[in-house]
Fold this sequence. Notes:
258 residues; alpha/beta
Amino acid sequence: MRITFIGGGNMADALIGGLLRKDFPLQDIRVVEINAEARRKLVDKYGVTTFDKPKDAVRAGDVIVFAVKPQNLREAASKSGIADNANLSKWLKGHTRLVRAMPNTPAMIGEGVTGLYPFSKAVNREDREQTETILGAVGATVWLTDESQMDAVTAISGSGPAYVFYFIEAVEDAARELGLPVQIAHQLVLNTFTGAAKLASSSPDPVAVLRERVTSKGGTTERALASMAKDEVKAAVIRAIHAANERGKELGEELGKE
């Protein structure tokens, strides 16, 4: 398998790093990036071959990874030089061996999760395996059976890291208000979040059961959770994710217009 990345930003950087850590051949990776500084960073960091235009980069039989923002996808696809190549299929002149992917930023440290959807039945087993090789280099992968589920994936795992960071910010603010030094507050909060996430990941019990085990009757945790329930924190989080899901649908409609 030879891979050409269209776009050389953070996600391409993460994927290239993940592939190389898994001993993927450096000579089989190419990157097309219009920004000279971004190209230089990739060359300095990995020694990868870069191009400013796809014309000389894309080879017959390459796996093409469009690592660009959604609003730039149409232009990137139309200029990709893929001749035999939903909307992306139209922009790629009818090419149907496409897999839609929604990774997230923890991919940058190899801890990401990516939702995958095969565009059509033209996507065969080899295509799936190649997709898993690329995206699996930076974390877990999940295959979806309905493309409409991608909006939910975007709202949950794509945007999800921001929700976690937002909650971390809030707890750190509270820690400082309670008189803890900044560095101590930061360490306590980060270790608490990472430890709780690892416990949830390794435990066979539902997270609700894990929460109950921390919550002693009449104790501090019960008081805090009662305050959150009064403020409808859980309902607010659910509403926020529904809002993200709706925005995902809107963006899909906007970007898919002729």
